[in-house]
Amino acid sequence: MGIILLDIGNVVVSVDFMPFCKAVSRNGEVGAMAVKGRYCEGELKDRFDSGKIAPQEFLGMVASDPLTLDIPLHELRSAWQEIFTLQKGCIEAIRQLQEHHTLWIMSDTDPLHFAFLLNMFPVLRSMERYFLSYVHGYLKRSPDAFRHVLDSSGIEACEFILIDDREVNCASGRSVGINTILFRNWPETLASPELFGDSGSGHVSHAPEGKL
Q: What is the pLDDT of residues 21-63, one digit of tens each?
């Protein structure tokens, strides 16, 4: 029926940065929160996700920070990567979607996270194309990320549906004419009429609360 642009974080997998923060913090829980604020959100992470900082440079910054313990880089890398668990119901949901749609990944991510995700969760290897922020340089909150998809694919916006857990990203997709579904869980998402072509272009769908 169309092409789904599928987010990864908190859609295919749950994301929890706190195990990383606690593993590297020199100052316990308080230090872990400081690590989270510096490396797991904000401008520095945006630069890493958009390919402006190389993986070794990023890890070196974390390793040399007074907030963090003196640990080998390979352990630091593992701690940064091991923050994901599969979302409940995602495997079967993706299989159902693939019966009727073409699935492309569209994710704001960094090369360390994506390499780990692709290796650990085989379901991600079943997608037909990947639009990754660290490759093309745009975060999804910018309409340029979606314009890049349209320009590079040569496909009209009305052929796409974005499934994403962030309203700012959905709003960005809608601004260029892409249909969107704001993800809350898989049962609600699969119940969305947007997947069956019942909604107009640029519409954000909220599946019925609690519908299974």
A: 999 999 999 999 999 999 999 999 999 999 999 999 999 999 9
Q: Which two tokens stand for residue 127?
A: 């997608």
Closest C-alpha among 164, 163, 84 to residue 119: 84
Residue in the structure block whose two tokens are 């780990």: 116
CA distances from 199 to 178, 180, 194, 205 (A): 12, 10, 5, 8
Domain boundaries, the chain: 3-14+85-205, 17-81
Strand ranges of the sheet holding 204-205, from the earlier edge strand across to the other edge:
129-132, 102-107, 3-6, 160-164, 179-182, 204-205
pLDDT band, very low/low/confident/very high, at 194 (cuts 50, 70, 90): confident
- Is residue 87 within 8 Å of 10, Cβ to Cβ? yes
Domain 3-14+85-205: which CATH number of 3.40.225.10, 3.40.50.2020, 2.40.50.320, 3.40.50.1000: 3.40.50.1000
- C-alpha 121: how far from its chain's center? 14
Q: Which pTM was predicted?
A: 0.90
pLDDT (tens digit, 9 = 90+) per residue, 63-106?
999 999 999 999 999 999 999 999 999 999 999 999 999 999 99
